[in-house]
Amino acid sequence: IRCWSNIPFITVPLSRAHGKSFAHRSELKHAKRIVVKLGSAVVTRGDECGLALGRLASIVEQVSMLQNQGREMMIVTSGAVAFGKQRLRHEILLSQSVRQALHSGQSQLKDMAIPVLEARACAAAGQSGLMALYEAMFTQYSICAAQILVTNLDFHDEQKRRNLNGTLHELLRMNIVPIINTNDAVVPPPEPNSDLQGVNVISVKDNDSLAARLAVEMKTDLLIVLSDVEGLFDSPPGSDDAKLIDIFYPGDQQSVTFGTKSRVGMGGMEAKVKAALWALQGGTSVVIANGTHPKISGHVITDIVEGKKVGTFFSEVKPAGPTVEQQAEMARAGGRTLAALQPEQRAEIIYRLADLLTDQREEILLANKKDLEDAENKGRLALPLLKRLSLSTSKLNSLAIGLRQIAASSQDSVGRVIRRTRIAKDLDLEQVTVPIGVLLVIFESRPDCLPQVSALAIASGNGLLLKGGKEAAHSNQILHHLTQEALSIHGVRDAVQLVNTREEVEDLCRLDKLIDLIIPRGSSQLVRNIQKAAKGIPVMGHSEGICHVYVDTDASVEKVTRIIRDSKCEYPAACNALETLLIHRDLLRTPLFDQIIDMLRVEQVKIHAGPKFASYLTFSPSEVKSLRTEYGDLECCIEVVDSVQEAVEHIHKYGSSHTDVIITENEKTAEFFLQHVDSACVFWNASTRFSDGYRFGLGAEVGISTSRIHARGPVGIEGLLTTKWLLRGDNHVVSDFSEHGSMKYLHESLPLPQRNAS
C-alpha cells in the first residue's frame, strides 16, 4: 500500500529495466511509467468548438485507475485551442449582440458574422479552463494533477531540459499526474494552408513529437497515442482494401500509404508514425489507437495496458512466422481451393492422414510424453485434464478408424443438391451445400481433437484455424505437421493452420472479418469465456454438460447398474458423463436402490445429496451446493422425483440441454420422456456416453452443440456445411412476371439427382 495525502491505494508489482521496448503486447501489463497522448480529435467535439466532455471523463477515469494501481501516468493533451475558441466565440457573440442591439435593432442579430479567430489567442483563452476541467475530474478519484506548458525551444536548452526532467520526476514521486501541453499561445505561426474552418489548429503535430520526446526523456515504458482512427492501416482508412495493421515494425513504412490527416490537427498518421518510431528507437513501446469510438473509448487505455489487441502496436521484434490474420487469410484461400477439389481428392487427404497417425505412432507418442512430463513437473493440470492430454496406441488406432469413416462418408457432402425448383420455363433454382468458410477451433488439453477436427474441416471444404492449449504444444505441433503433410498431396497445405503466436483467445474472437464460426472444445469456463468474448462471430458448442439419468419404477435391475456405471465411471471427465442421477421415490429403500449405492461406492464415486433426497435420510451424504453442477470427476448428485413428469421438469430447470437418459421397461413412459425432454440427445436404456460423433457413425465430431439453430448434438460434416442458391435462366427479368407480363411462375419441385451410392 502506498499513500499520498492520506489516501491509500493498491500497487501492483511493476519493474523493468529501461532501454529495450516490449517485444509482445502481452508484456504491456508490466509497464510502470506510461504517457497517454490525446489528439485534438479525441479531446474536441465534432464541431471543434469545445471539448468532448464524456470522452474526456472516461479517459480520466482510466488514467486514474492505472495510477491507483501504482503506475506513473502522464498526459500530453491538446484541446486548449478548441476550448478557447468556444469561450472567445461566446464573448464575441455577446459583445456583437449588445452593439447591434444598440445601433441596428434586434432584426440584425441573425446576420452577425464571427471573425476568424487566431489560434494563439484561442490557446491563451482556453489553457486555464482546460486545466481547471482536468483538475476537477481527477479530484473525483482523489488524484492531484499539475500543468506543464512547454515549447520546442525548451528542449534545445540543456538547463531547461534538466529542469523539466526534474520537475516531472518530482511530480511522479508525489503521485501527481502531470498534464503537459505545448504553449500554443507563444509558438511560432503555423505553416501555410493549415487553416481549418477559420481556426489554425497548430498543436497536434507538435504534440505527437512532444509526446515521443517526453517518453524517451522520461524513460517511459509505454506511449499510447490516441487519435480518431483505429490505428495504422496498410492503405488509407476508408478505402475498400484497407486493413488495420496489428503490429508495425521499423522498416515497414515503405509498404504503407498514408491518407489525409484527422479532422482537426496538423500531424496526420505519418507524423504519428515518425514520432512512434523515434520513441521505439529510444526504448519506449508505442500503441496508436482510436480514442473516439463510442464502443471502445471507455476502456481503450486499460485494454492496451492489459495487452489486448487494440490499435497498432509498434515492435522491434518481428516474429518468424505469419501473424494470425495472415494465417486466417491463408486458411480461407486454402479452404476455397480445398472445396474446389473432387470429393475423391478430399477423401484421399483424410485417408493419408489416417495412415500417418499409425505410421508415425512412435514420434507422436514421444511428443505427447514430453507434454505429460511438463504438465506433471509443473503440477498445473488436474487429473481429469491429464487424462485428456494423454495419447496411447489404442487412441491413435481409434482416431485412424474414425478418420477413415469420415473419408468414406464425405464423398457427396460438398456441392450436394438438396432442393430443385422450376421457377418458370427455362428458369431452374437449386439449393446446394457449401462450406461455412473459416472455422476457429479452440481446444484444451486434448491433442486427439486436432486430427479429428482437421479431417472434418477437410471433408467439408472449410479452412481451419486451430488454437490448442500450451500444455499440449509438442503433441499439437507434430499432429499439425502430419495434417499439412497429408494436405500437401493435393497442394492445399495452408488450409489448416495452427496458431502458435502469443495470441490471446479473446483477441482471436474479435477477428469477425476473417473467421466465420468459432467452435470451443474444453471446459465449461472456456466455452463461457469464448461466448462472451466473441464479437460478431457465431459460437457453436455447449457451456456445460450436466447430463441426467432417470431411473423409473419400471427399470430393469440388470440394466440400471450397467448403464449408470458406464455413464459415470467410464470417462468421468467427458462432457457426456452422468452428473445427476434421478431416482423415482418408490425405489428408495429397495434392493435396486441399494445396488446402485453399493456400485457407486465400489467405483469410489463421491455422492452429493439433492434437497429432496437428503430429506428422506437420517444420515445423508453432503448436501449438494447446486443442482447445476458439472463435476467432471468421480462425483455425482442423487435426487429424488415423484414421477417421470417431475424428472422432465427437473431436467429442464437444472440441465444444460446436452444428454439425458431414462431407464425403464415401460415403453409408454419411455416415449413420454423421449418426446418431452428438450435436449440435444435423449436416450432410452442406453448410456449417456453414446452422445459422441464417432459412436453416432459420424466418424468424429467438432463438438456437441446445445444450440437451437443450425446444428445440434454431436456435430460432424453436416454441421460444418451451409447452403447457397444457384439460379440458371435464359434472359429472364422480373418485369416479365408482372400482372401484364408474358410469363407465369410455376414453382414446381424437381427430382433430386441420385446420390453417390458408394
UniProtKB/TrEMBL annotation:
Key words of the record: Amino-acid biosynthesis, ATP-binding, Kinase, Mitochondrion, Multifunctional enzyme, NADP, Nucleotide-binding, Oxidoreductase, Proline biosynthesis, Transferase
Catalytic activity: L-glutamate 5-semialdehyde + phosphate + NADP(+) = L-glutamyl 5-phosphate + NADPH + H(+); L-glutamate + ATP = L-glutamyl 5-phosphate + ADP
Cross-referenced CDD domains: AAK_P5CS_ProBA (cd04256), ALDH_F18-19_ProA-GPR (cd07079)
Cited InterPro entries: AceGlu_kinase-like_sf, Ald_DH/histidinol_DH, Ald_DH_C, Ald_DH_N, Aldehyde_DH_dom, Asp/Glu/Uridylate_kinase, G-glutamylP_reductase_CS, G5K_ProBA
Domain of life: Eukaryota
Principal place of residence: mitochondrion
EC number annotated for this UniProt entry: 1.2.1.41, 2.7.2.11
PROSITE patterns the UniProt entry points to: GLUTAMATE_5_KINASE, PROA
Subunit-level organization: Can form homodimers/multimers.
Family the entry assigns: In the C-terminal section; belongs to the gamma-glutamyl phosphate reductase family.
Name used for this protein in its record: Delta-1-pyrroline-5-carboxylate synthase
Record lineage: Eukaryota, Metazoa, Chordata, Craniata, Vertebrata
Gene: Aldh18a1
